[in-house]
Amino acid sequence: MNSSFVSVVVPAYNEASCIRRNVEEIVRYLDAKFPRFEVIVVNDGSTDHTQKEIAEAASKDEHITALSFPTNRGKGFVVRQGALKTRGDAVLFTDADLSTPVEEIEKAVQELSNGYSVVIASRQHPQSNVRVRQSGLRELMGKSFNVLIRTLFPLPFRDTQCGFKCFTQSAAREIFSRAQIDGFSFDVEVLLIARRLGCRVKEIPVSWAHVDASKVSVTRNWLSVLQELFRIYRNDRKGLYGRQHNAK
Question: Model's pTM, two decimal places?
Answer without folding.
Answer: 0.92
